[in-house]
Amino acid sequence: MRRDNQSSVSEFLLLGLPIQPEEQGMYCALFLAMYLTTLLGNLLIILLIRLDSRLHTPMYFFLSHLALTDICFSSVTAPKMLTNMLMQTQSISYAGCICQAYFFLLFGSLDSFLLTSMAYDRYMAICHPLHYIRMMRQSLCFLLVVVSWVLSSSNALVHTLLLARLSFLRDNTLHHFFCDFSALFKLSSSDTTINELASFTVGSVVITLPFMCILVSYGHIGATILRRSSIKGICKALSTCGSHLSVVSLYYGAIIGLYFVPSSSNTKEKDVVVSVLYTVVTPMLNPFIYSLRNRDMKGALGNILSRGTFSA
User: Fold this and answer.
1) Has residue 3 got a pLDDT over 50?
2) pTM attached to this predicted model
3) Burial (CB count within 10 angstroms: exposed 0-12, middle 13-18, buried 19+), residue 170
Protein backbone atom coordinates (compact mmCIF):
# COMPACT_ATOMS: atom_id res chain seq x y z
CA MET A 1 0.00 0.00 0.00
CA ARG A 2 1.30 3.47 -0.83
CA ARG A 3 2.29 5.68 2.10
CA ASP A 4 1.95 9.46 1.86
CA ASN A 5 5.60 10.05 2.77
CA GLN A 6 6.69 7.83 -0.10
CA SER A 7 5.05 9.69 -2.95
CA SER A 8 3.44 13.03 -3.52
CA VAL A 9 1.79 11.90 -6.74
CA SER A 10 -1.96 11.35 -6.52
CA GLU A 11 -2.47 10.78 -10.26
CA PHE A 12 -0.57 10.21 -13.49
CA LEU A 13 -0.99 11.82 -16.89
CA LEU A 14 -1.17 9.42 -19.82
CA LEU A 15 0.01 11.14 -22.99
CA GLY A 16 -1.65 8.40 -25.03
CA LEU A 17 -0.94 7.51 -28.64
CA PRO A 18 1.44 9.60 -30.78
CA ILE A 19 -1.30 10.98 -33.06
CA GLN A 20 -2.38 14.49 -33.97
CA PRO A 21 -5.35 16.07 -32.09
CA GLU A 22 -7.38 16.41 -35.28
CA GLU A 23 -7.03 12.65 -35.86
CA GLN A 24 -8.27 11.67 -32.40
CA GLY A 25 -11.86 11.08 -33.53
CA MET A 26 -10.89 8.80 -36.41
CA TYR A 27 -8.53 6.70 -34.30
CA CYS A 28 -11.03 6.56 -31.45
CA ALA A 29 -13.66 5.09 -33.79
CA LEU A 30 -11.09 2.63 -35.17
CA PHE A 31 -9.98 1.38 -31.76
CA LEU A 32 -13.56 1.20 -30.53
CA ALA A 33 -14.42 -1.03 -33.48
CA MET A 34 -11.37 -3.19 -32.79
CA TYR A 35 -12.24 -3.50 -29.11
CA LEU A 36 -15.85 -4.47 -29.83
CA THR A 37 -14.60 -7.00 -32.38
CA THR A 38 -12.32 -8.45 -29.70
CA LEU A 39 -15.21 -8.79 -27.26
CA LEU A 40 -17.69 -10.26 -29.74
CA GLY A 41 -15.16 -12.55 -31.46
CA ASN A 42 -13.83 -14.09 -28.26
CA LEU A 43 -17.31 -14.36 -26.74
CA LEU A 44 -18.39 -16.20 -29.89
CA ILE A 45 -15.53 -18.69 -29.43
CA ILE A 46 -16.56 -19.32 -25.82
CA LEU A 47 -20.20 -19.72 -26.85
CA LEU A 48 -19.42 -22.17 -29.67
CA ILE A 49 -17.27 -24.30 -27.39
CA ARG A 50 -19.97 -24.37 -24.72
CA LEU A 51 -22.80 -25.24 -27.15
CA ASP A 52 -21.10 -27.78 -29.42
CA SER A 53 -20.34 -31.07 -27.65
CA ARG A 54 -17.78 -31.99 -30.32
CA LEU A 55 -15.61 -29.14 -29.04
CA HIS A 56 -15.53 -30.47 -25.47
CA THR A 57 -11.90 -31.54 -25.83
CA PRO A 58 -8.70 -30.42 -24.06
CA MET A 59 -7.64 -28.23 -26.99
CA TYR A 60 -10.88 -26.24 -26.98
CA PHE A 61 -11.00 -26.20 -23.18
CA PHE A 62 -7.71 -24.27 -23.24
CA LEU A 63 -8.94 -22.16 -26.16
CA SER A 64 -12.04 -21.05 -24.23
CA HIS A 65 -9.84 -19.90 -21.35
CA LEU A 66 -7.51 -18.14 -23.81
CA ALA A 67 -10.49 -16.32 -25.33
CA LEU A 68 -11.66 -15.21 -21.87
CA THR A 69 -8.13 -14.06 -21.03
CA ASP A 70 -7.92 -12.05 -24.26
CA ILE A 71 -11.19 -10.29 -23.40
CA CYS A 72 -9.86 -9.37 -19.95
CA PHE A 73 -6.40 -8.46 -21.27
CA SER A 74 -7.79 -6.05 -23.85
CA SER A 75 -10.29 -4.62 -21.33
CA VAL A 76 -7.47 -3.63 -18.99
CA THR A 77 -6.19 -0.91 -21.33
CA ALA A 78 -8.66 -0.26 -24.18
CA PRO A 79 -11.61 1.27 -22.22
CA LYS A 80 -9.36 3.77 -20.42
CA MET A 81 -7.59 4.66 -23.66
CA LEU A 82 -10.92 5.21 -25.43
CA THR A 83 -12.30 7.25 -22.52
CA ASN A 84 -9.27 9.54 -22.54
CA MET A 85 -9.56 10.00 -26.30
CA LEU A 86 -13.29 10.77 -26.14
CA MET A 87 -13.19 13.03 -23.08
CA GLN A 88 -9.90 14.69 -24.04
CA THR A 89 -8.49 13.84 -20.60
CA GLN A 90 -5.18 12.28 -19.67
CA SER A 91 -5.38 11.59 -15.95
CA ILE A 92 -5.51 8.29 -14.11
CA SER A 93 -5.44 8.03 -10.32
CA TYR A 94 -2.48 6.50 -8.51
CA ALA A 95 -4.60 3.57 -7.30
CA GLY A 96 -6.09 3.12 -10.77
CA CYS A 97 -2.63 3.07 -12.30
CA ILE A 98 -1.38 0.44 -9.87
CA CYS A 99 -4.47 -1.71 -10.45
CA GLN A 100 -4.12 -1.39 -14.21
CA ALA A 101 -0.47 -2.45 -14.03
CA TYR A 102 -1.40 -5.47 -11.90
CA PHE A 103 -4.16 -6.76 -14.18
CA PHE A 104 -2.11 -6.06 -17.31
CA LEU A 105 0.68 -8.28 -16.01
CA LEU A 106 -1.79 -10.89 -14.69
CA PHE A 107 -3.57 -11.49 -17.98
CA GLY A 108 -0.41 -11.06 -20.06
CA SER A 109 1.28 -13.80 -18.03
CA LEU A 110 -1.83 -15.98 -18.18
CA ASP A 111 -1.78 -15.78 -21.97
CA SER A 112 1.77 -17.14 -21.95
CA PHE A 113 0.95 -20.11 -19.72
CA LEU A 114 -2.23 -21.00 -21.62
CA LEU A 115 -0.38 -20.97 -24.94
CA THR A 116 2.18 -23.32 -23.37
CA SER A 117 -0.59 -25.67 -22.18
CA MET A 118 -2.05 -25.68 -25.69
CA ALA A 119 1.37 -26.52 -27.15
CA TYR A 120 1.67 -29.45 -24.73
CA ASP A 121 -1.78 -30.64 -25.78
CA ARG A 122 -0.75 -30.58 -29.45
CA TYR A 123 2.50 -32.38 -28.58
CA MET A 124 0.60 -35.19 -26.86
CA ALA A 125 -1.98 -35.43 -29.67
CA ILE A 126 0.60 -35.74 -32.46
CA CYS A 127 3.62 -37.36 -30.82
CA HIS A 128 1.80 -39.73 -28.44
CA PRO A 129 -1.69 -40.26 -29.92
CA LEU A 130 -2.16 -43.67 -28.26
CA HIS A 131 -1.67 -42.16 -24.79
CA TYR A 132 -3.49 -38.89 -25.49
CA ILE A 133 -6.85 -39.73 -23.90
CA ARG A 134 -5.20 -41.20 -20.82
CA MET A 135 -2.74 -38.33 -20.35
CA MET A 136 -4.90 -35.33 -21.29
CA ARG A 137 -7.72 -36.18 -18.90
CA GLN A 138 -10.05 -33.51 -17.57
CA SER A 139 -8.36 -33.32 -14.17
CA LEU A 140 -4.98 -32.55 -15.77
CA CYS A 141 -6.43 -29.83 -18.00
CA PHE A 142 -8.14 -28.25 -15.01
CA LEU A 143 -4.90 -28.45 -13.01
CA LEU A 144 -2.91 -26.75 -15.79
CA VAL A 145 -5.38 -23.86 -15.88
CA VAL A 146 -5.36 -23.50 -12.08
CA VAL A 147 -1.54 -23.54 -11.98
CA SER A 148 -1.49 -20.93 -14.76
CA TRP A 149 -3.75 -18.66 -12.71
CA VAL A 150 -1.71 -19.15 -9.53
CA LEU A 151 1.63 -18.45 -11.22
CA SER A 152 0.27 -15.44 -13.11
CA SER A 153 -1.34 -13.96 -9.99
CA SER A 154 1.83 -14.47 -7.97
CA ASN A 155 3.96 -12.88 -10.67
CA ALA A 156 1.66 -9.86 -10.96
CA LEU A 157 1.42 -9.49 -7.17
CA VAL A 158 5.20 -9.52 -6.68
CA HIS A 159 5.75 -6.86 -9.33
CA THR A 160 2.86 -4.72 -8.07
CA LEU A 161 4.05 -4.79 -4.46
CA LEU A 162 7.54 -3.77 -5.58
CA LEU A 163 6.01 -1.03 -7.72
CA ALA A 164 3.94 0.31 -4.81
CA ARG A 165 7.09 0.96 -2.75
CA LEU A 166 8.52 3.35 -5.34
CA SER A 167 8.35 7.13 -4.98
CA PHE A 168 7.21 9.46 -7.76
CA LEU A 169 8.37 12.96 -6.88
CA ARG A 170 9.80 14.53 -10.02
CA ASP A 171 7.18 13.95 -12.69
CA ASN A 172 3.82 12.24 -13.21
CA THR A 173 3.69 12.21 -17.02
CA LEU A 174 3.73 8.79 -18.67
CA HIS A 175 4.60 8.66 -22.37
CA HIS A 176 2.15 5.81 -22.87
CA PHE A 177 -1.57 5.05 -23.14
CA PHE A 178 -1.60 2.82 -20.04
CA CYS A 179 0.45 2.28 -16.87
CA ASP A 180 3.28 0.15 -18.22
CA PHE A 181 5.79 -1.12 -15.65
CA SER A 182 8.86 -0.08 -17.64
CA ALA A 183 7.46 3.44 -18.15
CA LEU A 184 6.75 3.74 -14.41
CA PHE A 185 10.28 2.59 -13.57
CA LYS A 186 11.73 5.39 -15.71
CA LEU A 187 9.46 7.91 -14.01
CA SER A 188 10.27 6.90 -10.44
CA SER A 189 12.61 8.92 -8.25
CA SER A 190 13.50 5.79 -6.25
CA ASP A 191 16.14 3.17 -6.89
CA THR A 192 14.51 0.63 -9.23
CA THR A 193 17.33 -1.93 -9.16
CA ILE A 194 15.24 -4.47 -7.25
CA ASN A 195 12.29 -3.92 -9.58
CA GLU A 196 14.40 -4.39 -12.68
CA LEU A 197 16.06 -7.48 -11.21
CA ALA A 198 12.64 -8.95 -10.40
CA SER A 199 11.45 -8.12 -13.91
CA PHE A 200 14.41 -9.97 -15.38
CA THR A 201 14.28 -13.07 -13.15
CA VAL A 202 10.52 -13.51 -12.86
CA GLY A 203 10.04 -12.45 -16.48
CA SER A 204 12.37 -15.25 -17.52
CA VAL A 205 10.11 -17.74 -15.76
CA VAL A 206 6.86 -16.28 -17.07
CA ILE A 207 7.87 -15.48 -20.65
CA THR A 208 11.16 -17.12 -21.62
CA LEU A 209 10.59 -20.53 -20.02
CA PRO A 210 7.10 -21.02 -21.51
CA PHE A 211 8.42 -19.87 -24.89
CA MET A 212 11.22 -22.44 -24.71
CA CYS A 213 8.69 -25.13 -23.78
CA ILE A 214 6.61 -24.19 -26.82
CA LEU A 215 9.67 -24.36 -29.07
CA VAL A 216 10.65 -27.77 -27.68
CA SER A 217 7.09 -29.05 -28.12
CA TYR A 218 6.94 -27.95 -31.73
CA GLY A 219 10.44 -29.29 -32.33
CA HIS A 220 9.19 -32.74 -31.35
CA ILE A 221 6.00 -32.20 -33.35
CA GLY A 222 8.02 -31.24 -36.44
CA ALA A 223 10.26 -34.29 -36.11
CA THR A 224 7.23 -36.57 -35.72
CA ILE A 225 5.51 -35.04 -38.76
CA LEU A 226 8.61 -35.47 -40.93
CA ARG A 227 8.82 -39.15 -40.02
CA ARG A 228 5.31 -39.77 -41.30
CA SER A 229 5.09 -41.01 -44.88
CA SER A 230 1.41 -40.15 -45.36
CA ILE A 231 0.84 -36.76 -46.96
CA LYS A 232 -2.70 -36.80 -45.56
CA GLY A 233 -1.35 -37.33 -42.05
CA ILE A 234 1.13 -34.50 -42.43
CA CYS A 235 -1.56 -32.10 -43.68
CA LYS A 236 -3.88 -33.07 -40.82
CA ALA A 237 -1.13 -32.49 -38.24
CA LEU A 238 -0.25 -29.14 -39.73
CA SER A 239 -3.89 -28.04 -39.81
CA THR A 240 -4.32 -28.77 -36.10
CA CYS A 241 -1.21 -26.75 -35.22
CA GLY A 242 -1.55 -23.89 -37.70
CA SER A 243 -3.93 -21.75 -35.65
CA HIS A 244 -1.96 -22.13 -32.45
CA LEU A 245 1.34 -21.37 -34.20
CA SER A 246 -0.14 -18.21 -35.69
CA VAL A 247 -1.31 -16.99 -32.28
CA VAL A 248 2.05 -17.84 -30.69
CA SER A 249 3.85 -15.92 -33.45
CA LEU A 250 1.68 -12.83 -32.90
CA TYR A 251 1.99 -12.95 -29.11
CA TYR A 252 5.73 -13.54 -28.80
CA GLY A 253 6.56 -11.49 -31.87
CA ALA A 254 5.04 -8.42 -30.19
CA ILE A 255 6.86 -9.16 -26.92
CA ILE A 256 10.20 -9.56 -28.70
CA GLY A 257 9.61 -6.35 -30.63
CA LEU A 258 8.69 -4.49 -27.45
CA TYR A 259 11.26 -5.73 -24.95
CA PHE A 260 14.15 -7.34 -26.85
CA VAL A 261 14.67 -5.32 -30.05
CA PRO A 262 17.31 -2.61 -29.50
CA SER A 263 15.72 0.79 -28.92
CA SER A 264 16.27 3.66 -31.34
CA SER A 265 16.03 7.39 -30.80
CA ASN A 266 12.24 7.33 -31.05
CA THR A 267 11.94 4.48 -28.54
CA LYS A 268 8.90 5.97 -26.79
CA GLU A 269 6.85 6.08 -29.98
CA LYS A 270 8.00 2.58 -30.91
CA ASP A 271 7.05 1.18 -27.51
CA VAL A 272 3.58 2.73 -27.72
CA VAL A 273 2.92 1.44 -31.24
CA VAL A 274 4.10 -2.09 -30.45
CA SER A 275 2.06 -2.04 -27.24
CA VAL A 276 -1.05 -1.30 -29.32
CA LEU A 277 -0.32 -4.39 -31.41
CA TYR A 278 0.24 -6.41 -28.25
CA THR A 279 -2.80 -5.27 -26.26
CA VAL A 280 -5.42 -4.42 -28.90
CA VAL A 281 -4.61 -5.99 -32.27
CA THR A 282 -3.49 -9.47 -31.18
CA PRO A 283 -6.55 -10.23 -28.98
CA MET A 284 -8.75 -9.08 -31.88
CA LEU A 285 -7.02 -11.31 -34.44
CA ASN A 286 -7.09 -14.49 -32.36
CA PRO A 287 -10.81 -15.24 -33.02
CA PHE A 288 -10.30 -14.73 -36.75
CA ILE A 289 -7.30 -17.05 -36.74
CA TYR A 290 -9.14 -19.83 -34.94
CA SER A 291 -12.37 -19.41 -36.90
CA LEU A 292 -10.82 -19.13 -40.37
CA ARG A 293 -8.06 -21.75 -39.96
CA ASN A 294 -9.97 -24.28 -37.86
CA ARG A 295 -12.40 -26.67 -39.51
CA ASP A 296 -14.07 -27.68 -36.24
CA MET A 297 -14.82 -24.06 -35.28
CA LYS A 298 -16.26 -23.33 -38.72
CA GLY A 299 -18.37 -26.47 -38.49
CA ALA A 300 -19.67 -25.50 -35.05
CA LEU A 301 -20.53 -22.02 -36.28
CA GLY A 302 -22.36 -23.48 -39.28
CA ASN A 303 -24.36 -25.80 -37.02
CA ILE A 304 -25.40 -22.96 -34.73
CA LEU A 305 -26.42 -20.78 -37.67
CA SER A 306 -28.39 -23.62 -39.28
CA ARG A 307 -30.20 -24.28 -36.02
CA GLY A 308 -31.13 -20.63 -35.81
CA THR A 309 -32.35 -20.64 -39.42
CA PHE A 310 -34.54 -23.73 -38.94
CA SER A 311 -35.92 -22.53 -35.65
CA ALA A 312 -36.84 -19.18 -37.22
Assistant:
1) no
2) 0.87
3) exposed
